[in-house]
Every structure is written in structure tokens, then in C-alpha cells.
């Protein structure tokens, strides 16, 4: 699930940066008062960013879960249009 560059081509150097995936991660894990990230802050690895700020990394399973859910949602929506609403993630 790659984002689309301004020239219309897939941005293959940025896997999982698709706007749908980013939005779901932000809304589900970070924006609510009782957000997952608030309660489980210790699960996020940290590193020093190029600007000198500490940054947290998303755990790979979290990204995989969201990517699977977004992918399934897209497949389901597409198949529903064709009368076979089913999702079998690869």
C-alpha cells in the first residue's frame, strides 16, 4: 500500500505511507484522550531525528494490522460493488 506521488506514480520507497493508513493510525492510536499510545508509550522505540528531537517509531505489528484492515476495507468495498462482498486478505 504505497502512496501516490505528485506525478501519479506509486512512491515505492515509502511503503505504508498511504494516506488511508496514516489517517487510521493517527485516529485509532493517537488522537483520543484514552489513546493506545498514551497507555502504552513504553512500547514505542525512540531515536534521535535529524532535527535533534526524540522520535517514536511505530511497532511493525501495529502498522501491519492497520495495513491489513485498510486493504481488506478496500477489497470489501470493491467486491460489494460487484455483488460479492467478501474479504480474504493475502
Low-pLDDT residue intervals, each spanning 5 or more residues: none
**Helix/strand/pairing category:** mainly alpha
The H-and-E topology, N to C, reads as HHEEH
What is the percent of helical residues?
40-55%
Give the overall pLDDT as a whole number.
78
Q: The biggest beta sheet, please? A: 2 strands, antiparallel
* Strand residue percentage: 5-15%
Shape: globular
From the N-terminal CA to the C-terminal CA, the straight-line distance is: 13 Å
The beta-strand count equals 2
Spatial sequence of strands, sheet with the most strands: 1-2
Count of individual helical segments: 3
Radius of gyration: 16 Å
Describe the protein's architecture and organization.
- The protein is mainly alpha-helical and 90 residues long.
- The protein is built from 3 helices and 2 strands, in the order H-H-E-E-H.
- The protein has helices at 19-30, 36-39, 60-81, and strands spanning 46-48, 54-56.
- Strands 1-2 form a two-stranded antiparallel sheet.
- A hairpin with a 5-residue loop joins strand 1 and strand 2.
- The protein is globular and about 50 Å long.
- The mean pLDDT is 78.
Amino acid at each position: 500500500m504505497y502512496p501516490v506521488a505528485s506525478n501519479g506514480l506509486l512512491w515505492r520507497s515509502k511503503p505504508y505511507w498511504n494516506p488511508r493508513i496514516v489517517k487510521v493510525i493517527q485516529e485509532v492510536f493517537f488522537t483520543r484522550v484514552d489513546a493506545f499510545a498514551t497507555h502504552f508509550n513504553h512500547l514505542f522505540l525512540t531515536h534521535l531525528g535529524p532535527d535533534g528531537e526524540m522520535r517514536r517509531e511505530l511497532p511493525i505489528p501495529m502498522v501491519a494490522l492497520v495495513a491489513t484492515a485498510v486493504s481488506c476495507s478496500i477489497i470489501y468495498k470493491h467486491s460489494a460493488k460487484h455483488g460479492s462482498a467478501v474479504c480474504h486478505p493475502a
